[in-house]
Specification:
This protein has 508 residues and is an alpha/beta fold.
Length: 508
Amino acid sequence: MNLPVGIRSLAVSFPSNIRTNEYWQNKYPDLFAQVKTRIARVPASANVSIETNGVDIWSMEVKPYLSDPFRGNVERRVVGREESSLTLEYRAAKDALAAANLCTDEVELIIVASLFPEYIGIGNAAYLAQKLQLRCPAWNLESTCSSALIALQNAHALIQTGAYSNVLVVVSHIGSHTVNEKESLSLSMGDGAGAFLVSVLQPNQGILGSKIIETRVTCGAYLYEITTNADNQPQICTRTGDKASMLAETAVDFVRTCCQGAIANAGVTLEEIDFFAFNTPTAWYASLCTRALGIDPQRTINLYPCYANIGPVLPIANLYHAAQTGKIREHDLVLVYTNGAAATAAATVMRWGDVALGLPPAPPISTTQQQESHYSLPVTGSISAKEGYTTNHYHLSREKFWETLPNQRQQILETYLIDILSDLLKRPIMQLNTQESFVYLVDSLIALELKNRIEIDLQLQVSIAQFFQSSNITQIAQFLLEKLALLELNSTESLSLEKQDDIEEIIL
């Protein structure tokens, strides 16, 4: 059998807290000074020959960050007191199933990779299946930062044999709670989760070829030990080991071996790949990969400044944002690469299908115009680091709206409305949802302000009465979508206002 098996839906889930560099500057000024002094000792002007060997390429890409005490880190998503790997996984899983229009009874297998899980010594699979009320097998899988691709390969193989039809893969990374805040490793650790549904797709779509290798030479790059947290509960603590230099020495060889092997197995060439989703555990890793393969940096994405190192969630987040921003479209050839220390490095080539996306995460809080271009984020705006609500509302023009893919427009409008309401109500985005009753959510003054912002942003005349006739945000988004579609339909014709009203009444 050679079924077209691949990713059917994709979702990400991040904590509500966004931690910036100021956290360490204010809380640990001595640590900040030590890191700055230590980096200052490195000769930033050292000559680096332009060679093709791994160490030279690594050194060349690291060089711009030598003078930065935070090594390219800008923001990280960090779990709060009421959040955990299990809560993030649950939200991502629900979102992925909803995007695919799949109920829990149709899931035949769930594969879960939790780095690090809720409980020491056992993974989250059974606990997540219980929380989702699934009645299917639940397996734990772990291959450090390559866990998502290894799980994808397992799901693909199992569906090919006919053993299963719909496999849900859920991956999480809780790095912030496994490092000592007073050590520099903590600067790079973020938290998050992602989920994707693997099913049979349309002909000629799905996974075409993969290449997976072991990374045993990096054993000892990270060390893990059990400690206790502030509540005197046991937890895993991660620190840098004496083999950390092997991560740099092997990075280029691994990406070349895996990517070249994957395209060979898929029967394509690097030039035919439309988009590359690389592992990005450091600020310079995407650049290292593009230089190692000799490809245009515009064919990939680097979200590290927004999320830092989110381990096995990195490929899912990169694919999600790339698809959301239109960098990946249906039928595109996509190559995904991951590198897991003391585990596996993997690359997979797939023909992208009509992948349904879950709700987008909150945008970063400190992007500049230049950074937004570099990160290729879907929206502009900011979220208050202290309170978690918007300080500059999500700007969505009618032109930008029509540039998005048709299957994303309802979701974009829902996010747009929630973002504005978060600002107007001074409530964190995480406390708002699309099914919340609009009547109980706002008063007439808030509704008027919402109306004004919609009319300015989308150049769309709306009535407050229509808002209150809608039961929730989803219905308001549907109303806006229909009204925009109507205006687009009429844009090529010269119609009277009466005629437009007639058409609008018929459509609604």
